[in-house]
């Protein structure tokens, strides 16, 4: 059995749909008992762990899950010691810098984000000194109320930015979901993992 950590929500449905297309008999999220956090699918040879997206790389790094599906944004932010095996190409979006349309450079600019590691690295590469403010909720609020001049966040359609009077000021990285593996599991269960990889690659 391969244990696979799956993020709850839209990414999970897209990932399970890929697995189905690749010939694996897995249910979609809507067909699963929403109260269960561990789901065994013996006919596919899988056990699924249903978790929050930010926790997926932790489960995989510590080996309680052999594989996981995680967004590139989460992998960039956490820098966990895992193998990134395959770009699944699902849930595309981008990590962007945003702010008000009339934003002007400041001597001591503040940037609000849920991704402090990514933001700090990006602005350091740009040679720009900023103060990073770590938030956990709707970071779009920060420029509106004057907490920060800019934000770093995931942008998909840009609708939330527009509704709050913000615009994209730059793109840090394109983001999709990736299949990741525990390093020990990749050695011990390499044959089963490679079979899954080959099937998914054909579909993608």
TrEMBL record:
Q: Which SUPFAM superfamilies match?
A: Periplasmic binding protein-like II
* Biological or metabolic pathway of the protein: Amino-acid biosynthesis; L-histidine biosynthesis; L-histidine from 5-phospho-alpha-D-ribose 1-diphosphate: step 1/9
GO cellular component, as recorded: cytoplasm
Q: Which UniProt keywords apply?
A: Amino-acid biosynthesis, ATP-binding, Cytoplasm, Glycosyltransferase, Histidine biosynthesis, Nucleotide-binding, Transferase
Return one Gene Ontology term, BP aspect: L-histidine biosynthetic process
Query: Which GO terms of the molecular function aspect are on file?
Result: ATP binding; ATP phosphoribosyltransferase activity
- ATP phosphoribosyltransferase catalytic domain: residues covered: 52-201
Question: EC class of this enzyme?
Answer: transferase
List the Gene3D superfamilies.
Periplasmic binding protein-like II (3.40.190.10)
Specify where it is mainly localized: cytoplasm
- Might you give the EC number(s) for this enzyme? 2.4.2.17
Catalysis: reaction(s): 1-(5-phospho-beta-D-ribosyl)-ATP + diphosphate = 5-phospho-alpha-D-ribose 1-diphosphate + ATP
Which NCBIfam families does the entry mention? hisG
Q: How does it assemble?
A: Heteromultimer composed of HisG and HisZ subunits.
Domain remark in the UniProt entry: Lacks the C-terminal regulatory region which is replaced by HisZ.
* Protein function: Catalyzes the condensation of ATP and 5-phosphoribose 1-diphosphate to form N'-(5'-phosphoribosyl)-ATP (PR-ATP). Has a crucial role in the pathway because the rate of histidine biosynthesis seems to be controlled primarily by regulation of HisG enzymatic activity.
Q: What is this protein called?
A: ATP phosphoribosyltransferase
Organism encoding this protein = Thermoactinomyces mirandus
Gene that encodes it: hisG
